[in-house]
Amino acid sequence: MMQSIKPKLNALQSIIRIFLQSVHTPQNVIDTLARIGISISTNAINAVVKSLSTESQITIWNLGQTLLTSYAYDNFNVNLKSHVPLAENSNDSLKHLTSGLIF
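Given the sequence above, the corresponding structure tokens read:
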């Protein structure tokens, strides 16, 4: 019912889908809501993320070709503790990550 060629309705579906994903809604619920037209499908959101990633990669590559950029990297550690205690791998909560910044 809500699926339409009107951009505002499709934007509403996208916002609902992003909200559902942010509150960790089960995939079965999201797929059901997508089938009845309340949300967009998982494949649609994955396609958008892939498209935006590709566009960002191309933009960063083009910016790097101008030689007017500086790159900064930082390694940091994050201790990700689980709310539910697990018997196995209980000491594997420390993650080593790298962030990057382009000036």
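The beta strands are 71-79, 94-102. Try to locate this feature in the token string yourself.
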